[in-house]
Structures are given as structure tokens and as C-alpha cells.
Amino acid sequence: MATVSFKGATRYYAGVDKPAVDRLDLEVEDGEFLVLVGPSGCGKSTTLRMLAGLEGVDEGQVHIGDRDVTDLPPKDRDIAMVFQNYALYPHMTVAENIGFHLKIGKVPKAERARMVAEAAELLDLEPYLDRKPAKLSGGQRQRVAMGRAIVRRPQVFCMDEPLSNLDAKLRVQTRTQIASLQRRLGVTTIYVTHDQVEAMTMGDRVAVLKDGTLQQCDTPVGLFAKPANLFVAGFIGSPAMNLLPQGEHVLGVRPEGWRITEDVDGTPGAISATVEVVEELGSDQYLYCATPEHEQPLTVRTPGMAPWQRGDRIGLVPLPDAAHRFDAATGERLPG
Ligand SMILES: Nc1ncnc2c1ncn2[C@@H]1O[C@H](COP(=O)(O)OP(=O)(O)OP(=O)(O)O)[C@@H](O)[C@H]1O
What we know:
Elements: E1 4-11, E2 21-28, E3 33-37, H1 44-52, E4 59-64, E5 67-68, E6 79-82, H2 94-104, H3 109-122, H4 138-150, E7 156-160, H5 168-185, E8 188-193, H6 196-202, E9 205-210, E10 213-218, H7 220-225, H8 230-235, E11 242-246, E12 249-253, E13 258-261, E14 271-280, E15 284-290, E16 298-303, E17 313-318, E18 323-327
Helix pairs in contact: 2-3, 2-4
The structure holds adenosine-5'-triphosphate.
């Protein structure tokens, strides 16, 4: 096990002036589950591939523990990678797929069988050890890919969208399994996803990237409570934070951060709004409200079966501590 450090790590692709990853500084702790998240093209995969040695580092360095691995080939980095497409060998059985790297590494046969059996037990794959990948479900294939990574006992796991081929329900189940497995094994893990819910539920910390630049790295609670800028504020949280321009500032209020009042005119500071759409979720209700000042409707989340209906006029006041403020010009969070 080991720490991972990116020190000003920068990657340019041939023929592109702007770096795909720009001076990335990031320290991952020993045993930590760190998620890289951001929209398509923000540089998540490139960051992971620089760590795995599948992509060169043009400026800066990458360290694993106390080793500078910047110029080491992938096989010497002691990393196991789990890809989106799993990259299983179709002609090999589950057991052979899981044990493949051990065989290449000349681990004796009996030892290999023991390690494969151990991984299969951990991943509930024992009944399938003699099957070929074509006869497995998507979730089982995903677990075989995990098994192949686990038996190598690497210092670091690198996972690039390993759940994106699963349907929504299985994805939710599998993300819990991966997170708990990682905690049990205690192997430092860097996990790439574009899904902010996946990021927030799995990561000890989450690093948010945009256009190749790290925006913020914090615990899920930290990102949610104190987004460092407008991008993070809008990206983390679902439904997204309401962002209301107010001259030189932007006021940010999460959908659950409003107090609703019927006394619109008698409540100082209340934003007057008309309920346009009501979404019933059973446990919650979402209101989408039009206001005279703002083009975008405001989203309001209320617990339970609130009494509001389309056409109601309501007043919205940010709850104490629910107001986030940003500089409209720079997008940076303002103190307080
Ligand atoms: N081989 C390449 N040659 C040129 N440009 C590339 C190459 N690979 C990636 N890029 C560009 O580098 C940027 C970062 O790509 P990267 O794949 O790291 O993003 P990502 O955040 O993982 O995106 P996605 O979620 O879509 O996989 C993008 O603008 C992409 O178009």
C-alpha cells in the first residue's frame, strides 16, 4: 500500500495547444478511496493513465509512496487497473482470467489456485470459475475484472468507469460492493467517474476536474457544504444548486435550502415566486418556480407531501447557513 502524489503533472496531446491535464497537484493518502469526477473531456482518464504509466507526463512528476514513477513503464509501477470494458480474455475461464497475471508472474500453480479461490470467495464468483466470460452477466464480468486486480495485491488500484456498462440498479448495488471491498482490502484506490452521485457515495475524498484543471478536492460533505467555486457548486448536488446573479455576486441556494412562506409581501427578503411544476417523489416534493427577476426557474425541495400546487404564489427565503456567495467575475466562493 502507498500514497500517490501528482506534482504539477501535465499532459499535452500531440497537435493540441492546451494541456489535457494542467499542473495537477494532488496527494492521495495511503489506503484512501479517491474519486476523480468531472464532465466529459475534463482529463479524468488522462490523469489515471498518467498514474498507470499508459500516458506520458510532459511536465511535473507522479510518485507512488517514496518512488518517483514518472518514467517507469506500467509493469514496474505495482498498479492494477480495472477498465470500463473489463478487458477479459474471452477464450479463458473465470479462474484463468483471474489468475492470468499470476501465471505470467510465474506464481506456482498451487499458490495461484489458492489466491484465485480466495478472490472468488470474496467476490461471490465461486460457482462460475469454469465458465467463459460470454456466459456471464454484466455484473459477474465486472467482478471477474475486480478479481483479476485483487489477486495482484497491488499498491494502487486504478479504476476507469468500471460500472458504466451496468444497468442503473446493478450499478447502485455494485458501487456499494466495490466501496466496501476497497475498505476491507485497504488498497489506495483512484476511481474515475463522470457521475457525481457515484463520486459522492464512494469516495473518501472527491477531486473535481474541469478543462484539465483541479477545481477542488475534499470530502463529499466538504464539497457539498463549501463548494470552492461556481462550477463545483453547480456540478455537485442533485437537483443542482440554484444560482442567482445579484450584481457583483452570485447567490447559491440548494433546493432544500429554502424556507417557504405564504406571506410573500410581509416577509422581508422573500423572493416572490409562482409554482409552475410540482414533482411528487413520495418522500419529497420538487417545486419548479418562476420568478420575475430570473430566467431560470428556481428549484425547491420540500419534505413529505407539501400542500403546494401549480399556480400558487409563494415566497422563498434562504434558510440560515444555506446561502452560498460567489464572486460573479471570478466564480470563486466568497468568505462567510
Ligand atoms: N489520444 C488523444 N489525442 C488527443 N487528444 C486527446 C487524446 N485523448 C484524450 N484527448 C483529449 O484530452 C482531453 C481529456 O481527455 P480525457 O479522456 O482525459 O477526459 P475524461 O474526463 O476522461 O473524459 P470522458 O469522461 O469523456 O472519458 C479531452 O479534451 C480529449 O478530447
